[in-house]
Design goal:
Blueprint: H1 5-21, H2 27-63, H3 68-83, H4 93-116, H5 121-125, H6 127-162, H7 166-174, H8 186-194
C-alpha cells in the first residue's frame, strides 16, 4: 500500500507540532507569564503595605508624640522601599538583593513602630489603630505567600529553559536566560520570622 506525499507531509507536520508542543513551545512562554504575574502580585502586596503606612503613622503620632525618631524611620524606610523598582526577567542578583533589602528595612521599621504601641494603652485601644493593625497583619501574610509563589514560578521557569527537552526549544526559539532567584538575606531572616509583630 502506497502512502501519498500529501499524507506524509500532513503526518510529518502533525508529528512536528505534537513534538514541539511537548517540548516547551507553549510551556516556556506560559512559565514566563507566570513569573510576571507572580512578580505583579508581590509588587501589589508591597504597595498595599506602603499605602497603609501613612494612616498608621498618623494614628500613632496622635498618641505617641514623643516617638518622632521611630515615626521618621518608618516614613524614610517607606520612601526608600517604594523608590526601588525591579523587573524579574532582567534583574541581577544584586538588584534583587537591593529590592529585598529596602523591603526588609521597611518590615523592621514597622516592627519597631508596633513595639512603640506597647507603651501607649490608649493607642492599642484605638479602633482605627486596631483596624490598621489587622490590615497590616493580613498584608504581611499576603506578602509571604506572594513571595513564595514568585520563588516557585521562577524555579519552574528556570527548569523549563535549562532542562531538556524544553531547554532545546528555548535554545532554538526563545533564548531566555535563567532568572535570578529570590531569597531572604541572612540578616533579614530572623527579622522576617519575628517582625513586624502586629498581633497584640
Amino acid at each position: 500500500m502506497k502512502i501519498s506525499t500529501r499524507v506524509k507531509i500532513a503526518f510529518s507536520a502533525l508529528a512536528a507540532s505534537l513534538l514541539l508542543t511537548g517540548c516547551g513551545i507553549q510551556s516556556i512562554p506560559q512559565a514566563k507569564n507566570q513569573v510576571d504575574a507572580a512578580m505583579s502580585e508581590v509588587t501589589n502586596q508591597y504597595k498595599r503595605r506602603a499605602d497603609l503606612i501613612p494612616n498608621l503613622v498618623a494614628t500613632v503620632k496622635g498618641y505617641a508624640k514623643h516617638e518622632e525618631k521611630v515615626l521618621t524611620e518608618v516614613t524614610d524606610a517607606r520612601a526608600r522601599a517604594t523608590a526601588v523598582m525591579i523587573d524579574p526577567s532582567h534583574a541581577t542578583p544584586a538588584q534583587i538583593a537591593k529590592y529585598q533589602q529596602s523591603q526588609g528595612e521597611l518590615s523592621a521599621a514597622l516592627g519597631r513602630l508596633m513595639s512603640v504601641s506597647e507603651r501607649y494603652p490608649n493607642l492599642k485601644a484605638d479602633e482605627q489603630f486596631r483596624e490598621l493593625q489587622a490590615q497590616l497583619e493580613g498584608t504581611e501574610n499576603r506578602i509571604t505567600i506572594a513571595r513564595q509563589r514568585l520563588i516557585k514560578s521562577i524555579q519552574d521557569f528556570n527548569n523549563q529553559i535549562t532542562v531538556p527537552p524544553e531547554s532545546w526549544t528555548n535554545s532554538m526559539f526563545y533564548h531566555y536566560k535563567e532568572m535570578a532567584q529570590w531569597d531572604v538575606p541572612a540578616a533579614e531572616k530572623s527579622t522576617i520570622q519575628q517582625a513586624p509583630k502586629v498581633n497584640f
